[in-house]
Structures are given as structure tokens and as C-alpha cells.
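User: My advisor asked me to double-check a structure prediction for SusC/RagA family TonB-linked outer membrane protein before group meeting. I don't want to rely on an old file, so could you generate it fresh from this sequence?
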Amino acid sequence: MKRNIQKLIALVLTGTVTVEMAAQQKQDTLSVRSIEEVVVTALGIKRQDKALGYVAEKVDSETFEETQNNNWAQSMEGKVAGLKVQTAGAGPLGSARITLRGEKSMFMDNNYALIVVDGIPLSDGPRVNSGTGTAAYGAGTGGDLPIDLGNGLNSINPDDIESVTVLKGASAAALYGSRAANGALMITTKSGKSRNGKIAFTFNSYSSFDSVLKWPDYQHEYGQGTMPQYYSYGVSPDGNSTGGTSSAFGPKFNGQYYFQYDPTLEGQSSERQLWRPYKDNVKGFWEVGSTYSNSLAIESSNDKTSFRTSLTYLENEWMMPNTGFDRFNFAGSVAHQFNDKLRISGKLNYNRTHSDNLPATGYNNQSISYFMIFQNPSIDLAWYKPIWKKDQYKIDQIHPFSSFIDNPYLIAYEMLNGVDKRNITGNITVDYRFNNHFSAMLRSGVEILNEVRTTKRPYSSANYLKGFYREQFITNQEYNNDVLFGYKNNFGKFGLSVSAGGSMRYNEYMMNDYRAEGLKIPGDYMLTNAISLITKVPKPYDEQVSSVYGLTTLSFDDKIFVDITGRNDWSSTLPAANRSFFYPSVSSSFILSDLFSLRSSQFNFWKLRASWAKVGIDGSPYQLEKYYDLSDIQGSVTAPSTYPNPNLKPEINTNIEAGMDFGLLGNRLNYNFTVYQNNTRNQIIRIPTLYETGYSHRWINAGEVRNRGIEMSLDATPVRTKNFSWKIGANWSMNENQIMSLPAEFNNEPYTMSTVAGVVYFNAEVGGSLGDMYGFKLVRTPDGQVVFGDNGLTARPANIEKVGNAFPKWRAGFQNDFRFGNVQVSFSFDGQYGGMAYSQTHHKMSEQGKLTHTLNGRSDTGMMVGEGVVQNPDGSYSPNTKSVTVASYYGDYYRRANIETNTFDTSFIKLRDARIAYSFPKNITKQLRMTELTLALFGKNLWMWTEFPMFDPEVATLDNSTITPGVEIGQLPSARTIGFQINVKF
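Assistant: Sure, here is a fresh prediction for SusC/RagA family TonB-linked outer membrane protein from the sequence you gave:
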């Protein structure tokens, strides 16, 4: 923290504070969205918005330039109706789970939206973004933890984004095939746009500083122990040792003296010490994080040639000590018009992300979350700082209160999770126009990922007493080639446009894994230093999809538009008999304001749209035949536990959508409304099977899910004068899904789609919803009173019940933009209503008496009586009078398996971002030989309202590589950010 403050002071004193780029917005950017606007649709085809029979919402570059995030996608949170950017709260890279219009598949990893960059789909998702192979809940397993190593979205530089078009429904993305069944984000990167062949330079810079947004409500009235009478670290004249527990049910802080831990002696103090709380012994571990980014772009264009190139370097030091990353981006774009027929363009993007240490997340000895849960209010954080015991450097750590709780500074400075990731994406496009009617496009794109990961665990760590070292080498290559022929013509008032083509996509993924189980020499992290070396030969994971497709657009008088699409895929992940599958779509747009001559200065347009689409979804590779996995034992394999299905069929997603768009008051008020329904059937799911078959599960096609929703958005400019303007934007979306059918094998019994930590079950029942959470609840009387047993603790239920649903009832966002001459003030709020989340952290901290609500009922005797009733032999109820120890009561009432008492409403409102900017007048920038100069102060997540008791209600768990909403296990703190910006163009 001191280092970051010194760095900031030094920069201010020298007058060289670097600040974030925020491209200066011109006044015309305040105009609201027009029906004539051109947007990028499937296959990169540019269309006028009025011709589309579905929603295609465009997000301009200012959104990403003004609100800088380590993962640019988070800038769209709350700004697009129906879009949710979910992170796991697992560190600075912030891998994102982007969904559009809720959940549709019973398999959680099949709900991601497709990311398309300059017409080339990214092979993003949990399969490519491999995890560490470990679960979020790992206490007592002796294993490791999940680490957020970033996903493909992190490789995209926000400064290079020209726009993002959000295609929400299957109709909008039908031409992209199975991966776009959940919608798509069409990213268009910047290209040279300066005029008259002049070279233009843009320098963008920002500095931002992070602090923890919200803390749990810690109690600092009672210290370590389970008895309120006394405390003793080790056996002492005061009594037996009470210093080995992780609970805070010990004596109250009243100025008394006890034998405590002495860091100089590394044991019991020679004299009694003051019994006192250390209120900063968790918060004081965290620092002020910082991010510095500098970007330089050069561009030029004339009537034939355009080019743009940019370099960006970002350095991040996260809030947890010794964590963070640096990122380098290069982008190049060139296009040349050889003649009136031939145009060739190409784009290349290179990204390198490097980190010596990213934080581990989850509930296990090696995560800082685990330490924060177990840290007691009577223990000084400084006692841990030496890390190693005297004369035991690199051999035995200081963790004097429990051998299961690792030293926090050992976690930060010795348990290192490194990554070196290189991404290359690029494409070349050839456009040829035969004449005014016929054209052809040939495009080839490539995506190459090379990633090296290292995991270091020192001697004496709870799970690796002799140390541990791991190297992983990951390669992923995807090649996309497509050709598209086009025909356009008008026949009087009728217009016809036909596009037809084909594509081939090939993906190849491979991972090498080497593990040193135990180290011969402490601190020497090399595979040759292994006591036992485990090598896993890489297993291929390849996939190929070949496709043909077509799009026909019919129009009448530029007032009625009809689109018809068809696509046929041949997927290598399906058996030969089912490998070929066809899916069509139809959409239509009616410009009612033109059809009925309603246009005026006050009523600008009225559009009615409707669409229907069917999309086929293939399965994952290698689900058709039996494949053996490599064992940790050299030269051996393990049999698969899931029985393959050689007769799999594609899933089918059928989408219906309708809506209206309105423009009023000279396009200063725009409103759109959409209703939709998705039905997904023949889902590829894994169900249990009899163990005597030799397998635990098998793949089948079964089940249907119906997904319905409403979306509304509003853009308006209430005030616009020469020197002042006010623009607002608002959106609201509601989504619900219902499980219509399940496999017949379940005989109407629930199907457990997934479970987290062995206590939260995501069960599917006919009539229920995806995201329904099941677990044990309290036993209650008919009027709702808690039932206790004869032992004074809560009665145990026999069966699990539904506790809630992980997804909210609705979401909303609200943005404001004010301009006073050269000053811009903008801010946005967003939030959600409903949704539930189970908190493992709340369970454990309540069980151990660390939160303020556990002060209720405490007494000098250490006994309390739970509020509720006991059941009498005749079935009646009487008040509970049985007293139990405070530790026993809270340990039972908030036990891990009690989902009810540890699950909370995740409704929230956030001040998502705010910004104040000043753009220097032209007469000043001209003297400085600049075309634009803007300075700004910005903030993110500045304020939050919620009743969720832990760090952040937007909670999810990183379980291996899957981001699971509705469950919090070892969540890391969220950040409040304040930063400075500068943008210079010349």
C-alpha cells in the first residue's frame, strides 16, 4: 500500500500523472439511435436497423473508452437489456460469463454468448479456458484450488474496439450456427479513418486505484476460544490451552491479561499480555491496487488505402499483495481498394498477458479467502509477517494457531500461480464486385493461443508439506474459412438481396501437464527437483464443423422487409447418421410510420418486427465412443466413468420474438419493446446409471426448457441547447424459464444437474426452473417457528427442499450524460431484484463467531437457549428451554449443510460508473498542435446498496473453469475504483 501511495505522490509532484484515455465525444454523439443506423449482423453483413426483424443493439466505442476495465465486457453491465456479465470475484483478470436472455441449457457451460471479432468467431468458453482441474470447495482434500487465469475476452484491447453489436436471439445469430444459439457479440475493431491521407496520432493513458468496496460485518468484542472464562496460548497457570481453535467464542475484551502468543519467542509469552482486539487484522492485509495503461495509435486513409496500428501496455498491481498482471497488445489493420471491383483487407491482433502471481480462490488452505475466514479478532496480522520460523527459512512457516491455516504472507509471496499467455487473432478478407448486382467475399481467419502456467507451493504448506511444482502447456488453434456470394437488385418498389456461401471451422486443443509431487531441495522449483514426477501425455480435443448457408432479403418500397435464412451443418461431434442437421429462420420488419404516412416532426418512426428461428446445437467432442484417460501412474490409464452415446442427436433451440420500436420528438426519444420465447429440446445431458454397468453416468438426448422474457429500453435527450445537453438511457429486462420435460428414466423424480461443495444442489424438476437451488432447511412448525431437538440444537430435516433460485426476477440500468460547454458529467446505475446465493463464507464465519450477528445470546456463562419450540410426544409444541454452549448453537444453526440460514437475497443497486471530463477548446488545442485534448476523473463501483452480507451480491463460484452463479465459496473482495484519464489526438 505504501509503495502505491508513494508512486502516486511522485507522479503528482513531477506533473506526469498518467491518466486513462477517454476519447472526446463530439456533440453529435448525443443524438439517439436512429432507425437508419447501420449495424453489423451475422457473418459481418452490414444492415440498416430498420430492415431487421430482431433486436441488434449497438454499443459504441465510448462505452469502453470511458469506463476502463481489466475485462472490457464489464463496461456493458447495466447498459444492454437482457445482457449479464458474470464474474466469479476471483482476481484482477475477471473472466466473464456473458449470457443473453437468461439460461436455456441444463448444462451451465452451454449458456455462453458467442464472441465474434471482425467476422471471425472466437473459440472462447470453459473448454478452451481450462481450469486447474480442482473444485472450489477443497478443504481437507489435500489438493489445489481454482485460479482465474483469464479467458479470450481478456485478450481484446478495449482501445481497439470500434463498436459491439449485441445479437440477442437465435434469429439474430442463426447464420453463425450452434455456437450462436445463445446470441452473439459482434465486435468490430478500429481501422484507419483519417482523411486526405494525413497521418493521425492518438495517445491514450489512464491510471486507476482500487480499494475494497464492501466488507463483511466483523465483530471485535470477543476473541479466540470456545469458553468465555479465560484464554491461554498453550498450557499456563491460567489453565489448559484454548489457543488452538479457530472460533471466536472466547473471553470478551475487557482489559484483562492472559498468556498469549509472543512472536519474538514463537510461542507462549513469558508474561500475561493485554487481551485486546486487532480491528485491522484482515482489512490491513489488503492494499490500494493500481492499474496504469498507455496506448498509442497511428492511422491514415485516402480514397484507396487505409491503415491503423496501435500499441498498448497495461500494468496492474492488484489489491492483494504480490498479485497482478501486465498486458501488451498490438493491433494492425490495412485495407486497399485495387480497383472498382477488388478490395483486400486484413487485421492482426497480438496479445501477451503475463503474471508472476494470480490469486487462488475457493475454500482451501492455500487461498487468502480461507485465511480471512479463520483469522481471529485477537490475533495481530503482524505476527505472520516474518513468514518463516527462525533458522527454518523456506522449510517451516509461521502459523502458530493451527497447522491447517497457512500464513497469509506465505500465500501471497510463496504460493505463486504464474501464467504467460500469447494470443494471435487475424483475418484476411477479399471482396470482389463483379458488377452492380453480383459480389463475392472470401475470408480466412485464425486464432492461436499458447499458454504456459506454473504453480509453486513451498515446504510446510498445509496440503504440500514437501512442496509442489506444476507446469502446464496449453495450445489452442482455430481456423475459420468462409466464402459468401451476394446478389442485389431492385425491381420497381421491390428489392431483392441474396447471400449464399459456406464455411469450415476446425479447432485443435491440447494440454501437457507435468507435476512435481514433493521437492528434493526447498524452494527450487524445477521438474528435475521432483521427489515424484507425474507426466500426463496430452490428449487431443479436436472438432470440425462444415457448413453451408443462405440469406434472402425481400423488401417492398423500403417499408416492408422479410429475411429468410437457412443453414446446414456437418459436425464431427455427432454420429454419421445425425451429423447433418438443417435449421432455418424467418424475420420481418414493418415500418408502420411509413406504411400509414405517420411521420412528422414529432413522430419520427414506428417499427413492428417479428422473427422465428430454429438452431441446431452439436455436442462436445468425444462423447460418441469410449476413450481412456491417462492416469497419474506412469504408463497407465483410467477407464471413463461416463458411458458414451453413439446415437446422439443435436439439441434444437426454437426462438420466437416480436417487438416494436418508436422514435419521437425529432429522434430525441426512442423506445423499444421486445417479447421472446425460446424452447430448447433434445438437450445433451449426463444422467446417472447403475454402477454394475461399469459406469456412473451416461449421455442421452432428453429434456425441454422453455425460456421467456420481456425487454424494454429507452434513450432520450430531454434538453439540448447550444451550451447544455442532457441525455438519458434506461433499460429493463425480465426473464424466466421453465423445465417442460425430463428424461423418462427419472420417473418424475428430480434430476441433479450439478452440485457445489456437496451441499447445494441445482435440481431440475418438471415445472421448475434452471437455477433452482436445493438443500437442507430448518424444520419448522406450520406457523413458521423453528423446531429444536431434545439436545437444544435444531431438528434435522429428512430431505432436501427448494431454497430459492440463483437468477433475479428482473434487471435494470439507468444512465445519465450532462454536457455544460466543454464539461461532461456522466454516471450510471444498475441493479437487480431477486435471486438468491448460498455463502460458504457466511456459514464458516457464523459457525466460528466472527460476524456481529453472532453476538446475540452471548453471556458470561457461555450458554444460550435457541429461540423456537420442541415437539412434544403428542405432536404439540412447547417453547424450547434447553441451553447449549454458544459455540454449539451457532455451529449447528449455521452449519454448512443448512442452506436456508446461509442463503441470501442478492438484490442490489450499484453506482456502476461515474465520470467528469473537460475537453479543451479548439483555440487552445490548435496552439498546442493538437486536434483534441480531454482530461477526466472517473470511478467504478463507487457505491452499492444490498442486504447480501458478504463482499458482493453479484456472486458466483469459480469451480474448476465453470462460473456458477448462486453460490459463493471463497469469494475475493470486489474493488471500488477511482482513476484519471487523458486523451490526446494530433
